[in-house]
Design a protein that fits this description.
It is built from 15 helices and 16 strands. The chain is of the alpha/beta class. It folds into 3 domains: about 200 residues, Alpha-Beta Complex (2-enoyl-CoA Hydratase, Chain A, domain 1), CATH 3.90.226; about 130 residues, no CATH class; about 60 residues, Beta Barrel (OB fold (Dihydrolipoamide Acetyltransferase, E2P)), CATH 2.40.50.140. The chain is elongated.
Length: about 450
């Protein structure tokens, strides 16, 4: 009996010890997690525009408030708008936490505006097989600025880049060459030219290579990085940013604008359907909102308005297609030059512009012609529908009486008395009283012998 009691006490003791060990292990695990450094990560793999600037601002705000050791920005961009670039570079330079900008994965690039962002970071890094540079300001479409204006734009961009490249202790001459001569550098060339600080294969390799590295912040203070084995928390885009990022594509915005305009026209042509008008208005408003985020040329807007006028004139007067062709040409040039794109990726695709212009022009001419013909067509109901129809006198008209028109009996008045059974023709009406004349009157008049 006593042996059973001892065995029971030993089992209880073993259970208590096991629970204590598990508790200690969990506490150590939580302590280890609490001590593990955290790095926030933002992925920018599109053109640089206002939506990108909003994403970066939000990510920096989160990194500055959640205790992250650094913000890691994975970049792959062909370039973008200079205004957005200035906003983003300023946010990076003013960040309280260090910013690591990493051009990745292999095949990625930090072109044009992306090069400005790369050089603004506390730590500039690239993956093997990437490139950066080609940062000369350009005007992709439309009238080119003169030599003086080009020089002003270039000098402004150079001064902007120099303002922080030298403070980052990087090669300002090589950086300026990317602006002046559109030089582009591979990862190895950028490292040799002292434009970047490290080449790394992946995120973990990058953070481990930065362990113990001392960096100089924009205010001159020194910070030692301790990022080895850090946990990376990815900053996901919000639903609003995803929708805006999709909508800010100029091709999508153009399709919304044209499709919405056609739906609104359909609503005016068939009042009361409601759905086309509401949907078309929503699409046009979304397109205007998206285009407002992009640099728009007002000369292109004028071309598009002129195209609409030409298409309407073609539909009304039928100029054998000449006005329609001129309208489609104006619409094509207007859509092509609508966005002052600094890089081709931000412009409207020529194929999309031509397809949309041709389709919109053809549909507009077809629909407007239907409306014009419908309005010119003789009414098919009431007294108006009787004009021009043959009639027969049911009784003698002296000058009023009753006539039969297409099987219906109408009161009528003739210009002169006519006997019953006379073939007549309706020439007009006064409300419900038809005006008639003998059907042979128009044939009797002719050239004199």
């Amino acid at each position: 009996m006593r042996q059973r009691f001892d065995r029971g006490r030993r089992s209880e003791l073993a259970l208590v010890v096991a629970v204590l060990l598990i508790g200690v292990g969990m506490a150590r695990g939580r302590a280890a997690i609490a001590q593990q450094p955290v790095v926030d990560k933002l992925v920018l793999d599109d053109t640089i525009q206002p939506v990108s600037a909003d994403e970066l601002t939000r990510a920096l705000g989160r990194a500055n408030s959640d205790g992250a050791r650094a913000l890691l920005i994975e970049l792959d961009t062909p370039g973008g708008l200079l205004d957005s670039t200035r906003t983003m570079a300023g946010a990076i330079l003013g960040s309280k936490v260090p910013v690591i900008l990493y051009v990745s994965p292999a095949g990625a690039r930090a072109g044009s505006a992306g090069f400005f962002l790369l050089e603004s970071a506390d730590v500039a890094a690239m993956a093997p097989g990437t490139n950066a540079g080609a940062a000369h300001p350009v005007v992709e479409f439309g009238p080119q600025p003169d030599a003086t204006m080009n020089q002003k734009i270039e000098n402004d961009a150079e001064a902007f880049l120099r303002s922080y490249v030298m403070k980052r202790n990087r090669n300002s001459d090589a950086a300026i060459a990317a602006v002046q001569a559109s030089h582009s550098y591979t990862a190895e060339e950028a490292l040799n030219q002292h434009l970047i600080d490290v080449i790394a294969n992946n995120d973990a390799d990058l953070l481990n290579s930065l362990e113990g590295r001392e960096i100089t912040r924009m205010d001159g203070s020194k910070v030692t990085l301790h990022l080895a084995g850090a946990r990376i928390d990815v900053v996901r885009p919000t639903l609003r940013e995803e929708l805006l990022g999709w909508l800010v594509n100029p091709n999508i915005a153009l399709l919304f604008l044209v499709g919405g305009a056609l739906l609104i026209y359909l609503e005016f042509n068939s009042p009361g359907t409601i759905v086309p008008g509401a949907l078309g208005t929503l699409m046009v408003l979304l397109a205007i909102f998206a285009l407002n985020l992009l640099p728009i040329r007002y000369t292109a807007v004028m071309l598009m308005l002129a195209a609409m006028v030409l298409l309407l004139l073609e539909a009304k007067f039928g100029a054998h297609g000449a006005l329609a062709i001129a309208g489609i040409v104006c619409l094509t040039f207007g859509t092509l030059t609508l966005v002052a794109a600094p890089v081709p990726e931000m412009g409207i695709s020529p194929l999309v512009a031509l397809s949309v212009s041709a389709a919109f022009g053809a549909i507009t001419v077809f629909l407007v012609r239907l409306v014009v013909r419908a309005r010119l067509r003789k009414a098919r109901i009431g007294a108006e529908a009787m004009v021009g129809c043959p009639a027969t006198a049911m009784e003698a008209l002296a000058p009023q009486g009753h006539v039969v028109v297409e099987g219906e009996i109408w009161r009528a008045v003739a210009s002169a008395p006519v006997p019953a059974g006379t073939a007549l023709r309706v020439v007009g009406h006064d409300e419900l009283l038809l005006r008639v004349e003998p059907a042979t009157t128009s044939r009797e008049s002719g050239p004199a012998a």
